[in-house]
User: Fold p-glycoprotein from Leishmania tropica.
Amino acid sequence: LALVALACMPLLIGCSLAERMMMNGYTKSKEGDTSDTIVTEALSSVRTVTSFNMKADRVEAFEATLRVEAPRSVKKGIIAGSIYGATQFIYYRAYALCFWYGSKLIDRGEAQFTNVMIASISILFGAQNAGEAGAFATKLADAERSAKRVFSVIDRVPDVDIEQSGDKDLGKGCDVDFQKVQFIYSARPKQVVLESVNLRFGDGTVNGLMGQTGCGKSTIIQMLARFYDRRSGLICVNGKDLSSLDIAEWRRNISVVLQEPNLFSGTVRENIRYAREDATDEEVEEAARLAHIHWEI
Assistant:
């Protein structure tokens, strides 16, 4: 019986390998990814889509990608169904052969039922699982590369240490000076964003940054928040080097109003208090008044 079951092993391993490789190779096409992107962008920017009356356009774009993807998906479905049906047919034919031959041995008193089941199930299931394991062998290299990328991110040392402690005495007021500041993004080392920039934002003044897209307006704000550090030059706050100040204390003194704010789960009061959890109710209400949302709340 064991020899009969072993004779079926190559066929079972091949079927399992083919079925698993077919399933592993069933990946989304470019059109499938595009349709996902269209839906995600439309839902995340639903206000913009509605404002420009682009609902019908986005629906048509989504349906267009599906029309391209549909024939390919149907073809893959037919191939997948055929391979699955063929492999299942071979599986059960092998089981039937082993059980039929085992019943003959039991009838002649040459084997016991327990031994027949152990030999048949162990070898047949072992062959099936061996084929599936072999199909995943090609994924080991991909898994190793993915793990290396993940650990490279985990082990990366950021240019700005958010846990950095420093001078907590920020002084009174807030005079900010940019002195010959240069900045280059690490991802684009050949493109200089800021070159020898000199700016001064006086305490109590209202200042605006104007310029074409990519000239560094947002970069200056991000440098003030210590998301990035300058390559050269000096940024001073009340005469002190910004990089010498305690990051947490400095950020607690910065208020940011984004173009499209995102609310976290929780109450409005909790959202206002995120930057300063020790803020009093009076301070929270005053912040709401300054933002012109007090009466709406």
